[in-house]
Amino acid sequence: MQDVAAIVLAAGKGTRMRSATAKVLHPLLGRPLLAYPLEACAKAGLGRVVVVVGHQADEVRAALGATGATFVVQAEQLGTGHAVLCAREALEGFSGTALVLCGDVPLLRPETLERLAATHRDAGAKITVLTMELDDPTGYGRLVRDADGWVERIVEEADATEAERAIREVNTGTYAVELPWLWEALARVGRDNAQGEVYLTDAVALAAREGAAAAVALADPGEALGVNSRVQLAEAGRILRDRIHRAWMEAGVTLEDPASTWIEPGVELEPDVTLGPGVRLEGATRVATGARIDTGAVLVNALVGPGAHVKPYCVVTDARIEAGAQVGPFAHLRPGAVVGPEARVGNFVEMKKAVLGRGAKANHLTYLGDATVGEATNIGAGTITCNYDGVNKHPTVIGARAFIGSNTSLVAPVTVGDGAVVGAGSTITKDVPPGALGVARGKQRNVENWSSRPKPKPGGEGA
Question: What is the model's pLDDT at position 189?
Fold first, then answer.
């Protein structure tokens, strides 16, 4: 649909959100609300997209500028028709069909936009309204049809008669229109009303009088949910999560408890991935086939290889876990961490800009920062790499098949060679050659009969 344009209305403040942030910038599954209608336009293949902004225009433009849309400013909020007119200059010379969408309606599918445009063209209409039927239409403008079923006009609830209020077919606020006809129609509509505003709905009656108004009904009213409050934002999130979860389960992913799972739209999962209860996958996280992510794990922009296992309550950010590796429980992989194939990271281990080689192990209570660990090396409990001298970060390099004893401090920059052994409790400040034993700790001294010595009495001398 490269020959179809879009006008996305996103100028409102969103007073009912009770927030200092513009409504269309509120996050919905990790993305600004406005990103969703823009993504739908892109997936539907629309050629030109104009976004009408107003409140916090600079912030909205900064957040969504990479989408390729054109942004125009509605300096005064003078109604939906006036907002659409603000896009006129940006669409100068365009002749054809344009879709008008609301920036706070995030759940419209690309297929719905395609059907709206196709029906509009097939009907030869000047304006086509996307409608839905509701059991309780309270608060919505009603679509009034004539005796033959043709679209006649849209009447707002406050202006509707008792009979019109009984109508269940309502306006969703999404339209297909013909340009430049709409520019001329809105000029004819004018602002002669109590609010002094230009209403896009008034153009429907003009088109109807020309026999050129049509309507398309949504099969799923949930697509047209508008977000005007934090309650509605949460409801939109629930619907979107359900949609995402269903799609992944149908693609071969197991969600043990879909209701508690969080999968953002940019995540990619392969068949036979298993997600435990409470798992949260954010950003551009990728999980390969056969991997398992257990209860409460949070992964942000993480890469998880085939057959890997992330155990409960791990936090993984901008890190990579390779095939067959195991992480956790309660491990923290920070940006730049790489857990190699078949490697193991255990409970209360933290890694940052560190690489753990194939089959290497760091099973307990360890910090690896700015470090490289060779294959099949064992890192004992309580080991830390002392990578920061108060000014700069320094690297630690540990070779293959080395053994680092428990409670070791490796003061960087330092290298431990292949096959070397570091004695438990050591503070290593110099390189340990390959195959050597490095020990750096105070000499043990035993005091005989210590426990049989007289002890001071409570409250007595020396107390």
Answer: 86
Domain range for 50: 5-224
Q: Distance between CA atoms of 70 and 7, rounded to whole angstroms?
A: 10
43 CB neighbour count, 10 Å cutoff: 13
Helix ranges restricted to H, 22-71: 35-43, 57-64
- Residues 297, 215, single domain; the answer is no
364 among known catalytic residues: yes
Quick check: is 232 in a domain? no
Predicted confidence at residue 193, as pLDDT, reads: 65
The pLDDT tens digits for 245-287 are 999 999 999 999 999 999 999 999 999 999 999 999 999 999 9
Based on the fold, state whether residues 302 and 218 are members of the same structural domain: no
- In this structure, the strands spanning 286-287 and 361-364 are unpaired
183 within domain boundaries: yes
d(CA 379, CA 252): 37
Residue 313 near residue 331, CB atoms below 8 Å: no
Q: Residue 449 falls within a domain, yes or no?
A: no
Whether 217 and 293 share a structural domain:
no
**303-304/286-287 β-pairing:** parallel
Which of these, 12, 82, 13, 9, lies nearest to 50 by C-alpha position? 9
The last residue of a domain, from among 179, 203, 224: 224
Q: What is the pTM of this model?
A: 0.90
CA distance 103 to 107: 10
Q: Which of 309, 332, 364, 394 is catalytic?
A: 364
Give the DSSP letter string of 338-400. EE-TT-EEEET-EEES-EE-TT-EEEES-EEESEEE-TT-EE-TT-EEE-B-SS-B--EEE-T
Cβ atoms of residues 431 and 417 within 8 Å: yes
The DSSP code for 140 is: S
Q: Which residues, given as ranges, of the chain have pLDDT below 70?
A: 192-194, 459-463
Q: What are phi and psi of 433, to 5 degrees?
A: -65, 160
Q: Which tokens sit at 116?
A: 């709206």
Q: Do 259 and 220 fall into the same domain?
A: no
- Res 459: pLDDT: 66
Same domain, 11 and 116: yes
State how far the Cα of 375 lies from the Cα of 386, in Å rounded to an integer.
21
pLDDT of residue 166: 94
Residue 384 is predicted with a pLDDT of 98
